[in-house]
Amino acid sequence: MPVLRGCKISFAAGAHHVAQRLMIGQEADPAKPLRGGILYFDVPDMAATEAALVAAGIGFFGPARPVQRTPTHDLMLREFADPDGHVVALMGLVAR
């Protein structure tokens, strides 16, 4: 089982505060090495951020999906491509 270590970086973009997570670890299958990485934007309000990106013309790959569940919240992930074609994702806690 690979061990992942993460760091969280925050910055302000205009009126919005955005945090990012960078996860570093080993590939699950060494025969299929990962190329590059995925930048996750940790957002405080998934629904509002998704709506703002859709209004700006961003097309998501699919619906948000849970990557972790707790008794009170789900950690949701929703992926899309940046203008250069790199995969990036929104990540945020959503109350159950």
Low-confidence stretches: 1-12
**Sheet with most strands: strand arrangement:** 1-2-3-6-5-4
What's the total helix number?
1
Percent of residues in helices: 10-25%
Assigned CATH architecture: 2-Layer Sandwich
Categorize the overall geometry: flat
Number of E-state strands: 6
Indicate the radius of gyration in whole angstroms: 14 Å
Structure description:
The protein contains 1 helix and 6 strands. It has one domain: Signal recognition particle alu RNA binding heterodimer, srp9/1, CATH 3.30.720.110. The termini are far apart. Helices cover 10% and strands 47% of the residues. The chain is flat, with a radius of gyration of 14 Å. The model is unreliable at 1-12 (pLDDT under 50). Strands 1-2-3-6-5-4 form a 6-stranded mixed β-sheet, with helices on one face. Strand 5 and strand 6 form a beta hairpin. With 96 residues, it is mainly beta. The chain has one helix at residues 46-55; strands at 5-13, 16-24, 39-42, 65-69, 73-81, 87-95.
